[in-house]
Amino acid sequence: MADRWTFLDTDVLVIGGGVAGCMAAIPALEAGLDVVVCEKGKVLDHCGSVGCGVDHYLTIMESGPEWDTPEFLLKHVPELTDGIVDMEVTSRVIHEMPRVLRRIESFGVNFKDPRFNDYYRLRSFGLPGTYHINFDGTEFKKNIGQQVRKLKGTVLTRTMAVELLTVDGRVCGALAFNFRTGKWFAVRARAVVLAAGEVNRISLNASGMPFDSWHCPYNTGDAQAMGYRAGALLANMEFVETTLTPKGFSAQGLNALVSEGAHFINKRGERFMFKYDDKGENARRAVIADAVINEYLLGNGPVYADCRHLPEDVLDHMEATLQVDRYTMPAFYEQKELNFREEPVEVSISELSIRRSGVYFRGSGLAVDTAGQTSVGGLFAAGDCATVSGGIAGASVVGHIAGEGVASLLENGAGAQSSLPAVDMSLAEDIRSRATAHMRVHEAQRLSWKTFEDRVRRTVTDYVGVRRNDKGLRLALETLRALAVDERRLKADDLHELMRVHESTSIRLNAELMAESALARTETRTGSSHRRLDHPDTDDENWRKFVVVENGGDRPRVETLPASDPLSSAFARNSGTGGWQRRRTGSEVAHVG
Predict the structure, then answer these.
(1) Which of 45, 207, 432, 512 would you call most buried, defined as having the most Cβ atoms within 10 angstroms of its Cβ?
(2) Domain 245-349, CATH number (from 1.10.10.10, 3.90.700.10, 3.90.550.10, 3.10.129.10)
(3) Strands of 510-586, DSSP E
């Protein structure tokens, strides 16, 4: 049995090699710890959501003005998040922003605009200051990945983690397989950092192609699913995020459009955003998306992005940076014969993601404390799979916080036992056997992962979506649970498809957690993030709360916690390990039958 496995022992296992994962690995490596990074991509330098580049970075810089201080931004965070935010963790993140910015610059990232030899900062998405640095981040991820390799981190590429290993409520490693060679790994670790991103490919989009997603289509909720099965607490899973993209092409770029001054107009040529928010196009992303959806429902579509009024130098800059986030975008404009200098460009709503709910600092996923640790001892989370997030800057800062948190935990002796717990090989072999069984499904029973995912996406789009009600959410749960039974019929024709099968089951599980949490929150909050047609008003008196979800066995267990408290108030310190364990403090919500 053991000869089927490759065994690795390390201090820290990082699952996900994107920005958050690399930024977690760096301080752990600098502390002298052994680190293994497990990444599905081919090359560490170009994997993750911004593997090909990024054009903006949100940060406090403490450059002098009052608005450029942590204290000023923190005063506005409750308004930005409609009061549903972990202020304790957010405060740590915002205060760490300037230090982490300087660290990234020390890796060789140049945030300055060559036109001015200075930082080019813009205002967008409801923020009370010009916090976004607009820059050419084509090499951003490369610089960070190179730092991990310089520090001699071990990187397992083309390798998918499928299950966390735990002993006595504490994480002690994970099982993974390489989907090119078929090699299976049992990695024992004193701490694990989950940094595998948000949940994409979860709903239909305008192009009809699931991998044409606004954010990285390979981020499929694997971290959330593994953490959930291991007993970790998740929060804010009911909140979804969507954005505006050129019609038929899901790409990033809304930030650049609104921060540079683009207007949104409807088919009548009306600039409509001020009807929905006094900040107009500088409203929060969730409000912009909700306004566009409403314009379509009112019969005012199509909706266009209009840049014709902008100065030539701004248009030149926009054109020059079109390809930074998505290098194929200029070709798309050319093939469609679109010229945003001379005509409005039609936009559409992107697919949904379980990510950041269209606001900064409120993430959806694994609940973390101020050190990035979850409710499971020794298990950390960072980036868009965690409950405090903020795009690439959030991934950078929370990743760095988690890496320092791991180093502190292990340095202080917690989990520093002389030998790691033995891997339960009967359990490991059972997990491996159940995984590889997908390659042996009888042809008469086979269900392709593509068909399965399409059913999940159709269910989420039709019954959950951005306009929700009790009946639809219950139908979604009924359908998603029926699909769970079908998971055993998923057929993988090769190792690559076996990886896709695991992604598909993660997507389905996260869709179920989203629907359960959305059913529990009987109010509307933050525009398109969570709109209940049967509960159309925001109810601060009863619903300024976190909806939290954890593994309840055959069903998710849903509870609520006051948003005035940090999510870590639901954790209890385990004095024996220095880690956390779950403590019940909230109000349980009745299960759906």
Answers:
(1) 512
(2) 3.90.700.10
(3) 545-551, 556-562, 571-574, 579-582
Could you report the per-residue pLDDT of 396-414, keeping only the tens digit for each?
A: 999 999 999 999 999 876 5
* pLDDT number for residue 575: 47
**123-175 pLDDT tens trace:** 888 899 999 999 999 999 999 999 999 999 999 999 999 999 999 989 999 99
Query: What is the SS3 string spanning 145-171?
Result: HHHHHHCCCEEECCEEEEEEEEECCEE
Q: Looking at the chain, which residues constitute the CATH 3.90.700.10 domain(s)? A: 245-349
Residues 6+ away with beta carbon under 8 Å from 456: 202, 480, 483, 504, 507, 508, 511
Q: Is 37 helix (H, G, I), strand (E, B) or coil?
A: strand
Element (H, E) at 395: helix 391-411
List the chain residues with pLDDT less than 50: 415-418, 575, 591-593
For the chain, the straight-line distance linking the first and the last C-alpha, in angstroms and rounded, comes to 41
Give Cβ neighbours of residue 247 (< 8 Å, ≥ 6 apart): 206, 302, 346, 347, 348
Please check whether residue 73 is in contact with residue 131, taking contact to mean a CB–CB distance below 8 angstroms: yes
| Locus of tokens 């790994």 | 185
Q: Which amino acid is at 219?
A: N
CB 258 within 8 A of CB 572: no
Only one residue has tokens 């109010």, namely: 523
Q: Is the pTM of this model over 0.85?
A: yes
What CA–CA distance (Å, rounded) separates 366 from 467? 25
Q: pLDDT for 192-205, tens place per residue?
A: 999 999 999 999 98
Nearest to 383, CA basis, from 128, 14, 10, 131: 14
Return residue ranges of the chain for CATH 3.50.50.60: 2-240+354-411
Cβ atoms of residues 371 and 409 within 8 Å: yes
Residue from 106, 107, 105, 193 nearest 147 by CA: 107
Give the count of beta carbons closer than 10 Å to the beta carbon of residue 398.
Answer: 35
* Long-range contacts from 480-483, C-beta under 8 angstroms, 24+ separation: 480/456, 480/508, 480/511, 480/512, 480/515, 481/512, 483/452, 483/455, 483/456, 483/459, 483/508
* Cα(167)–Cα(162) distance, integer angstroms: 17
- The amino acid that residue 343 corresponds to is E
Hey, what's the torsion of the CAs at 445, 451, 452, 453, to 10 degrees? Answer: 160
